[in-house]
TrEMBL record:
The lineage of its organism: Bacteria, Pseudomonadati, Pseudomonadota, Betaproteobacteria, Neisseriales. This is Cof-type HAD-IIB family hydrolase. Pfam families: Hydrolase_3. It comes from the Bacteria. It comes from Aquitalea aquatica. Its cofactor is Mg(2+). Keywords: Hydrolase, Magnesium, Metal-binding. GO terms for molecular function: metal ion binding; phosphatase activity. Signal peptide: none annotated.
Length: 264
């Protein structure tokens, strides 16, 4: 029995333009009318995801910043986890941040250390804008996520440095090849999904989940019915060899799979 659907956004529920298409919105609205509940699980900022939920036209829990923040359908904050400020200050220094575009996600702000027009274009629909600050001088308080943007080869070296320096004191993952993210230990989309399901009294066995990236591993491992996108990162697919594969996000794979599964 399926009672709950959790989905990643970029590379999964959203199309190749990082937008909601009509088929996907219609499909989720039809399922909501049948009593299904939803969570949108993403590395994006909460303020950004609210606009995507509006475009979908459904009531959904929002798991943002890879699980560092969880809001209910009425925008009530039900979970928050920040990095240790000392760690934020440490990893904002050039030893780690040189050669990257550095971002901090706070409750009501998105901070960045330099202009980057592509990010503004990506968030045009939600209207979310960054603030430029000297992040190496930030006190580190209230930061739910640190994001480094650079080419993948460089980020692999940053990832290795972070693991060596931080060990188990942070959760480190890629949301895309050019996006390396750091959250507090224990944070993940999977942990956040369990919090939501517990609040609703729904078993993980009744949960269907979709993902494509390395930051979706815990989400899909938590759900009783994981689905891997055809365009998924090889690391994700290798971690979940038992999971069924659905068509890519370009083909509206989530919507097509749901329409077949629920005979819409």
């Amino acid at each position: 029995m399926y009672r709950f659907i959790a989905s990643d956004l970029d590379g999964t529920l959203l199309d190749e333009h990082h937008a909601v298409n009509a088929l996907t919105a219609q499909t989720l609205q039809q399922l909501e009318a049948q009593g299904l509940r939803f969570a949108l699980a993403t590395g994006r900022h909460y303020l950004d995801v609210k606009g995507i939920r509006d475009a979908l036209g459904i009531s959904a829990y929002l798991i943002s910043s890879n699980g560092a923040r969880v809001h209910d359908p009425d925008n009530r904050l039900i979970h928050s986890s920040n990095l240790d400020p000392a760690i934020v200050r440490q990893i904002a220094q050039p030893e780690f941040a040189a050669g990257t575009i550095l971002n901090f996600y706070l409750d009501d702000a998105w901070l960045i250390d330099q202009p980057y027009q592509y990010l503004l274009d990506l968030h045009a629909d939600s209207g979310l804008h960054y603030q430029i600050e000297a992040l190496h001088q930030h006190d580190g308080a209230g930061v739910g996520k640190v994001l480094y943007i650079a080419d993948h080869a460089h980020l692999l070296t940053v990832e290795a440095k972070l693991h060596q320096a931080l060990g188990d004191s942070a959760y480190i993952t890629f949301s895309a090849d050019n996006c390396l993210e750091v959250m507090a230990p224990g944070v993940s989309k999977g942990h956040a999904l369990r919090l939501v399901l517990d609040e609703l009294g729904i078993s993980t066995a009744d949960c269907l989940a979709f993902g494509d990236g390395q930051n979706d591993i815990e989400l899909l491992q938590t759900a009783g019915h994981p689905r891997v996108m055809a365009n998924a990162h090889p690391r994700l697919a290798s971690q979940l060899p038992q999971a069924a594969t659905v068509a890519s996000n370009v083909e509206s794979g989530v919507a097509l799979h749901l329409r077949q599964l629920f005979a819409l």
